[in-house]
Amino acid sequence: MQPLRDDDTLFAALIARDPSYEGFAYVGVKTTGIFCRLTCPARKPKRTNVVFFACQDAAQDAGFRPCLRCKPLDIKSPASGALHTLRERVKAEPERRWSAEDLRALGYDASTVRRAFQREYGVTFAQYARSQRLGLAVGTLQQGGSVIDAQLDAGYESGSGFREAIGRLIGDAPVRTAAHQILTAQWLDTPIGAMLAVVDDAGVHLLEFAERKALPNEIRRLRERTGPISFGHHAMLDRLAGEVEQYFSGRLMAFTVPVVQKGTAFEAGVWSALQQIPVGQTRSYGALARAMERPEAVRAVARANGANQVAIIVPCHRVIGADGSMTGYGGKIWRKQWLLEHERRMTASQSQH
Hints:
Layout: H1 7-16, E1 26-29, E2 34-37, E3 50-53, H2 56-61, E4 65-66, H3 81-92, H4 100-105, H5 110-121, H6 125-142, H7 147-153, H8 159-170, E5 183-188, E6 195-200, E7 203-209, H9 215-225, E8 229-231, H10 235-248, H11 265-274, E9 283-284, H12 285-291, H13 298-307, E10 319-320, H14 333-351
Parallel strand pairs: 2-4, 5-8, 9-10
Antiparallel strand pairs: 1-2, 1-3, 5-6, 6-7
């Protein structure tokens, strides 16, 4: 992706609300004097009334004011009102069981809320809230609380319903939960979409975009290889979230959070080789195979690259086709383009200082 494409391409991206230019192109509307992200949900202006900029400063220097709706000066794209409000409510009241009536009382349509959460996280609002509620219950049990306390914390009136839900989550009865080493999961919001993070005391087991089609299989495989997973709070999640935020804001070139995803010896070798690719650079599958002294294993390297479950930190997005083409990326090609352009700009900025 080029730093700034021609105006016709950018106008087409504006009409399509193409997220691949997020942070790399802005549109100024001459009739209003404001500038927006290309993904702004506001009514689209006429082609003759717009001018494009490569950065926020250029738009402001030209006299345009930031849009109050899409907030182009913010690092993250603003979430919809429903997403932001309900996430905060669930965080403040993780034990609450939400109903359609509760949503209507807040002024939201239940079906609209369901679609918004499915777009962002791949789950409905009810599933999102339930996962947080069960995570709270598992935390109570892990800390030595009684089953009835955990049941009440989770908002379950039925003991059998609670046991069934916990059983699906961790594969054992609640009374034996304290014996398990449980992986902890949480959603992390980024400028290019929500990511699911799974950690334990040792480090990061999974970090993937919510839209990745293979995510359900990856979660299933992680549970089989490592252990049960519960949504909740964990110091490693706090550390990971901080580094992810710094990376997306352009302030972090190298992650320090440990990665502990499990795979074969060959997969582990590929993942280690991926982490040796410098920020702002790319490699072909063939080059990666040669760097590992396995030049005949190009296809195996590609498969191991695709099996990586820790996006960005283990930078599989830095591997491209031998001809320079953007090859397959589970998190979607436009995100791969975005990440490479983001890193190119980070390295350029670093070299200027």
